[in-house]
Amino acid sequence: MVAEVPIVTSLKRWWRQPDSYNWISSYLRNRGMFTISRALIASITAMVAVVGAVLMASPTAVQGTGLRALAWTAIVGLLGCTALWIRGWPTKRQSIAFLLVFNLCIAVLIQAQSDPMVGLVGVVALAIPGGYIACFHSAGFMAYNFAVAVYLCALQVFRHGFGVDAAEVVAALLFVLLMNTGVPFGVQAVVHVLGIDLLQARHDPLTGLLNRRSFFDRIDEMLYGSRVSPRYLVMIMVDLDRFKLLNDTRGHAVGDQALIAVGQALTEIARGRVVTGRVGGEEFMIAELTATEERTPLAQQVCDAVAALPFPITASVGAVVSRVDHLSDRVRQDVVEDLCTKADAAMYIAKRSGGNQVRHV
């Protein structure tokens, strides 16, 4: 039975959890959902701009020149946000700028309404950037978006006053706050569960390392999330020597223990922008992002670490490096596959030469 987590502890975990922009972006890209996701976000943003323009043409809009100019500037800003998504998938920084501008433009349009009830109901629109934040970004931005919603509600209620029934105001206020909490937290709950399921599905159950598909997905995330130049990708293929003999003579249980030990050794070696995975029975791969094309010491460290384990096995290691910062996404994928092939060939050269050694291409 799972023990209940105190609410304060849960809130602390929620507040400290990292954003999910990179892995959600990679998830959508790997499943061919980039285009439809961009179209959806661009369409919603454009629709908010259209609604804003309609409101500014209605009698409920303020007549002051200054505030009207700000409101039309906000509409132009929303169209700019739409153009951002039409142009392509934004970087993480561009995404943060998008949500902040989106939030600000909606706030300006709400303030540009002379009818406070229209302004109050309009705060519901902040649930849109709230849902976006819940999907891609951290709790801090969610709290900011909600704080803006509460502030705007307070302005409409206490600053302008109402010539309507108080019950109607309370009902509208509760509905607005419900939408600005329910939508973001509902989206984040789905993202959280999806993240847990993906995390469990991505790892080899024996060693805890990434499985083959997830290994290449993580490389894609690593390359997509880095804007450092120059960038070189090092691919290392590792195959255990005499592992079949170990299995045949001492049993599969001991073989599993050896694989677990290798996985732990590779995890301890992995530092910085290093991805490690088990891609076959006794085959492992490591990807490292570096700023130089010089031979990495990581390959020899892997070889030495496996040889030091309390099992009669060693490792044949093949390593190759190539520059990847100047490549498009499609070409980069072909380069990664080519590097894997070359690293695999180098590993077989090491194995045919007696094993327990490294070969660089």
Automatic annotation (TrEMBL):
SUPFAM superfamilies: Nucleotide cyclase. InterPro entries: Diguanylate_Cyclase, GGDEF_dom, Nucleotide_cyclase, Rev_trsase/Diguanyl_cyclase. GO terms for cellular component: plasma membrane. GO terms for molecular function: diguanylate cyclase activity. GO terms for biological process: cell adhesion involved in single-species biofilm formation; negative regulation of bacterial-type flagellum-dependent cell motility. It comes from Mycolicibacterium tokaiense. The keyword Nucleotidyltransferase applies. CDD domains: GGDEF (cd01949). The keyword Transmembrane applies. It is an enzyme of class 2 (transferase). Its EC number is 2.7.7.65. Keywords: Membrane, Nucleotidyltransferase, Transferase, Transmembrane, Transmembrane helix. This is Diguanylate cyclase. The chain crosses the membrane at residues 39-57, 69-89, 96-112, 118-135, 142-158, 170-194. Residues 231-361 form the GGDEF domain.
